[in-house]
Amino acid sequence: MQVKSRHHLRSDAVSDLEARLESTLAIEADGDAYERVEFEASDWEVVLIDGEPLVAAFGDELFLTVRGANEYEPERRRVVVDAGAVSFVSSGADVMRPGITEVSEDVSAGDLVVIAEESHGKVLAVGRARVDADEMLGDEGKVVDSLHYVGDDLYGFSG
User: Which fold has domain 74-155?
Assistant: First the structure.
């Protein structure tokens, strides 16, 4: 991915980002340097925290990247999938009900969520929930649209 622009965030933008991450995911971002990166021929925008791509813009909402979610390990907005779903989710597939083993109860339709595997808790993807948490478990149907996953261009970007 070719970088179009890169600039440091002002202190008020850093405070706003940290407050959003705290209220949404109950995590405390604790970097010394925050930079916003835009790319050529891509809709991705990334916030580097101490040089690592830990936050990205998904539409107009800032949320953790897969790397960021593995760094900060949020307990909110979390969907956990079984071993059978890992290879599909890691390749960018949307999440289906039968593969889900656990959902944090704060998930609402339209929310950005982290998708983790059940064995080690590692985050595999970031997606957008199609339904509320109480409708996620079941036998059939797509419930989370994949937006970013292990192995995509954003995951491969290094600051």
Answer: 2.30.130
